[in-house]
Amino acid sequence: DLFAAAAAERPGAVAVRAGNRTLDYAGLDGWADAVAARLHDEGVERGSVVGVLLERDTALLPAVLGVLRAGASFLPLD
Predict the structure, then answer these.
(1) Positive/negative CA dihedral, 56, 5, 66, 73
(2) φ, ψ dihedrals at 56, nearest 5°
(3) How far does CA 18 lie from the centroid of its chain?
């Protein structure tokens, strides 16, 4: 995907900043892959809708990207 290509070009650059916490591109890419793999293990299929309930922090973007990589759609819950 396009994000993985961008992450490969600058793995150590900051991708997400939330307060004093940061996540670099390599970390974000790997975390998103782990989320996608876990969703597949749990039976999430292409076209599924996955609810995402997280604080607006460094964990939100890997979760959303992982859902998309799993072929699913995300439903933000607040």
Answers:
(1) positive
(2) -80, 85
(3) 15
